[in-house]
Design brief:
CATH superfamily: NAD(P)-binding Rossmann-like Domain
Strand order of the largest sheet: 3-2-1-4-5-6-7
Mean pLDDT: 97
CATH architecture: 3-Layer(aba) Sandwich
Number of strands: 7
Distance between the termini: 43 Å
Bound molecules: nicotinamide-adenine-dinucleotide
């Protein structure tokens, strides 16, 4: 008999912001490992649905705007109605606003903090309550950033939000480990998605960034596949409150 600790057959995962980019890559990775997925997006996630169904998984498309906490109860309810339980939450949806700190607006501060930090916390809280009611633990994977570790430049609310996500990941792990809930985070490096389009379109910044990545390339959504399956599976049962950088070596420099 073989035992595969990365096996996720029949597990139910909520993945926010999975109609594109890293969220789509992680939703597909979880489906490849056997999960059914409740995707939460502002608009229909047809491409993600097609890819997950092609892998043999089920996908439900929950439309919600995560800039406020209002849809959270409904996200949990729709997932339970479709699948009857929840095993995994990937808190991925996030935005970034770029402006010099001297000019930065309150609107750009609130928008980023609300989506990246406030909703991340309250969705984790709602899902953890469900995990506890189910009585057999669960997995929460928050999406942090290199700016959980570093200051960055011209992205004050993003740095504050992602530094907050790393701290929150540790706090939630401390409180919920006793319930068999693992809370960890992935800190992606510089990945080729909409989030970094402005950087990649700036020849000077783009060359500076690439020159510092030991792996010699920007990351791709597929680079998060192994890490997210690991942190969503029983292979990581004794890992609590950790933020795993997946950055081609950026932080090692
Ligand atoms: P992306 O812009 O391609 O994807 C962001 C996702 O979040 C999209 O699906 C978007 O629809 C969703 N989203 C944003 N606001 C939302 C809202 N109000 N309601 C519902 N959904 C919303 O960018 P990405 O790079 O794939 O980003 C995914 C996560 O990874 C984000 O949290 C981002 O901060 C983080 N991240 C990205 C990088 C990178 O280099 N690309 C690096 C570190 C961290």
């Amino acid at each position: 008999m073989s035992y595969n600790a990365f096996e996720l057959s029949g597990k139910i995962a909520i993945v926010t912001g999975c109609n594109t980019g890293l969220g789509q890559g992680m939703a597909m990775a979880l489906a490849s490992a056997g999960c059914h997925v409740a995707g939460v997006n502002r608009s229909a996630a047809d491409a993600t649905r097609e890819r997950i169904e092609a892998l043999g998984g089920r996908f439900i498309d929950i439309q919600a705007d995560l800039s406020s906490t209002a849809p959270i109860a409904d996200i949990v309810a729709q997932t339970l109605e479709a699948f009857g339980r929840i095993d995994i939450l990937v808190n991925n949806a996030g935005i970034i606003r770029r402006e010099d700190a001297l000019e930065f607006s309150e609107e750009d501060w609130d928008a980023v903090i609300d989506t990246n930090l406030k909703t991340t916390f309250f969705l984790a809280q709602a899902v953890a309550r469900q995990f506890i009611a189910q009585g057999d633990g669960g997995k929460i994977v928050n999406i942090a950033s290199l700016l959980s570790f570093q200051g960055g430049i011209r992205v004050p609310s993003y740095t504050a939000s992602k530094s907050g996500v790393m701290g929150l990941t540790k706090l939630l792990a401390n409180e919920w480990a006793k319930h068999g809930i693992n809370v960890n985070a992935i800190a992606p490096g510089y990945m080729e998605t909409n989030n970094t389009e402005a950087l990649r379109n700036d020849p000077q910044r783009s060359a500076e960034i690439l020159g510092r990545i030991p792996a010699g390339r920007w990351g791709a959504p597929e680079d998060l596949a192994g890490p997210v399956v690991f942190l969503a599976s029983s292979a990581s049962d004794y890992i609590n409150g950790h933020t795993l950088a997946v950055d081609g070596g950026w932080l090692a420099r």
